[in-house]
């Protein structure tokens, strides 16, 4: 059989060597991934840290618009619901186009919402601006940033998520006094203008994501597929990863997280009110929540570090932290029955630590269930579905308080939902196995989703997937390991192709 032209072989090898630097830069557990951790740190603080601090404007809106507290509270609720509702849209756009562009667009929308809100003349205006527009921007930012960072790390994945999410607690402490100062100095309209400018820093975080390198071949295939309506629907379904909704492990895990969400946010909304009802001063009640927030930060980092040691499976650690968090939520009202502030503070500190410890693991377990190449869409669907639990939990606890006259039943039921979520996780396939099973891989990633980001494709690429399986198989742009470098090889179909 005739041998390939040496000059042609050199040409095929030259391209990967030229790209070798970029491949090495995107290697897991290092390189540019640490820059993206910093971008995640800043962007999450400007999403959830800012969202948690919007209560500073609550009194200002009540006085200016002369509306009820319930009507004003829908502003932040709309923003949270929009962020989770539009998360699948953000992941689908990332799969279809470029993560960098999507996140930068989300940053622009988040800032635009606050800028337009500064000119509000009615509550409906605030619902549409701070709620829908900024919420849409947050939905385009959070999940894509999390998925991008997770794709750059394997061994330290949980730790880097803990570090990135720790900014939520830190920014909550910093933003509350800062926003209060801005309101006192510039009134609420001027303060919202500054918040809009502050949110535009998300655009810089998105710019740090490396743009996708697209080949010409997929573009040609894409143009052919667009001619068919059915093919277009299949393509949209693949971008949204709707096939995960019939995947039993993913459905079970999503149900577990949704049940967890029913009770998870209840202490954030009602712990201060419960402390005041228990007879503690306003300062003491506020300090209980601040102390829980401090241990929340510590729990995220410690949990991430311990999880990445690899002594236990991530799903087992997650169930431990969720069980403890649920039990401590139940104990919060019990600890204050005797009027002991020290007991309430101790339980609050323990709850804060456990609630922070489980947060990073909730996201880190997802690629172990669906695989890294489907992680972007899986996170988006998870955010969408679990939002129902978060929106249900607080009204349910408020209803129980109105019926019983205190928050004891509210916290007990909330903790029960968290424990119920833990029990649901135990029904996952192979849950009781002591070894971490390899994550599933998509069988034909190249044919189905060539538009995925290279960092998501890279995580499940192996030498066995990129070797020539025979001389009768046509292969192009494949790679094999030659020393420490990846070089392109070409499989020829027959001797006629080599001429």
Automatic annotation (TrEMBL):
Family affiliation: Belongs to the major facilitator superfamily. Monocarboxylate porter (TC 2.A.1.13) family.
Keywords: Cell membrane, Golgi apparatus, Membrane, Symport, Transmembrane, Transmembrane helix, Transport
Residues spanning the membrane: 31-51, 101-120, 126-147, 159-180, 186-209, 250-271, 283-302, 314-335, 341-366, 378-397, 409-432
GO CC list: Golgi membrane; plasma membrane
Gene Ontology molecular function terms on file: monocarboxylic acid transmembrane transporter activity; symporter activity
Annotated function: Proton-linked monocarboxylate transporter. May catalyze the transport of monocarboxylates across the plasma membrane.
Residue span, Major facilitator superfamily (MFS) profile domain: 33-433
This protein's record includes keyword Transcription: no
Compartmental location: Cell membrane; Golgi apparatus membrane
The protein, known as: Monocarboxylate transporter 13
Gene3D superfamilies: MFS general substrate transporter like domains
Membrane-protein topology: Multi-pass membrane protein
PROSITE patterns to which the protein is assigned, alphabetical: MFS
Listed Basic and acidic residues bias regions: 446-463
Main location: membrane
Keyword Membrane recorded: yes
Ranges where the record places region Disordered: 1-27, 439-464
């Amino acid at each position: 059989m005739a041998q390939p032209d040496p000059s042609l072989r050199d040409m095929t090898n030259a391209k990967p060597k030229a790209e070798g630097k970029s491949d090495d830069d995107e290697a897991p557990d290092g390189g540019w991934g640490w820059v993206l951790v910093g971008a995640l740190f800043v962007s999450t603080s400007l999403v959830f840290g800012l969202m948690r601090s919007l209560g500073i404007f609550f009194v200002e809106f009540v006085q200016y618009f002369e509306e009820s507290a319930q009507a004003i509270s829908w502003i932040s609720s709309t923003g949270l619901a929009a962020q989770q509702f539009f998360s699948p849209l953000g992941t689908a756009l990332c799969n279809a186009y470029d993560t960098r562009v999507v996140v930068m667009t989300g940053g622009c929308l988040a800032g635009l919402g606050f800028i337009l809100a500064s000119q509000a003349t009615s509550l409906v205006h605030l619902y549409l601006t701070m709620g829908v527009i900024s919420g849409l921007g947050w939905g385009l930012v959070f999940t894509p940033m999390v998925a991008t960072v997770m794709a750059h790390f394997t061994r330290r994945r949980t730790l880097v998520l803990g570090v990135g999410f720790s900014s939520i607690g830190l920014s909550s402490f910093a933003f509350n006094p800062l926003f209060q100062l801005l309101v006192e100095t510039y009134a609420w309209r001027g303060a919202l203008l500054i918040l809009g400018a502050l949110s535009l820093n998300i655009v810089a975080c998105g710019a740090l994501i490396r743009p996708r390198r697209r080949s010409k071949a997929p573009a040609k295939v894409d143009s052919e597929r667009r001619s068919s309506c059915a093919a277009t629907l299949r393509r949209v379904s693949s971008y949204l990863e709707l096939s995960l909704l019939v995947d039993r492990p993913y459905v079970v895990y999503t149900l577990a997280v949704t049940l967890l969400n029913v009770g998870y946010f209840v202490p954030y909304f009602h712990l201060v009110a419960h402390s005041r009802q228990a007879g503690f001063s306003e300062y003491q009640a506020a300090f209980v929540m601040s102390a829980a927030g401090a241990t929340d930060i510590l729990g995220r980092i410690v949990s991430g570090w311990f999880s990445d040691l690899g002594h236990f499976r991530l799903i087992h650690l997650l169930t431990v932290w969720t069980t403890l968090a649920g039990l401590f939520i139940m104990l919060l009202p019990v600890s204050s029955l005797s009027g002991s502030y020290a007991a309430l503070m101790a339980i609050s500190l323990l709850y804060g630590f456990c609630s922070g410890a489980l947060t990073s693991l909730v996201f880190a377990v997802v690629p172990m269930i669906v695989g890294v190449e489907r992680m972007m869409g899986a996170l988006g669907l998870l955010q969408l579905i679990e939002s129902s639990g978060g929106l249900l939990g607080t009204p349910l606890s408020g209803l129980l308080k109105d019926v019983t006259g205190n928050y004891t039943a509210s916290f007990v039921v909330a903790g029960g939902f968290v424990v119920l979520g833990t029990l649901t996780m135990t029904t996952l396939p192979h849950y009781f196995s002591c070894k971490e099973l390899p994550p599933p891989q998509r069988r034909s990633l190249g044919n189905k989703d060539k538009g995925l980001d290279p960092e998501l494709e890279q995580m499940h690429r192996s030498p066995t997937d990129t070797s020539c399986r025979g001389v009768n198989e046509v292969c192009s742009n494949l790679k094999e390991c030659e020393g420490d470098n990846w070089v392109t090889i070409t499989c020829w179909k027959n001797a006629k192709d080599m001429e």
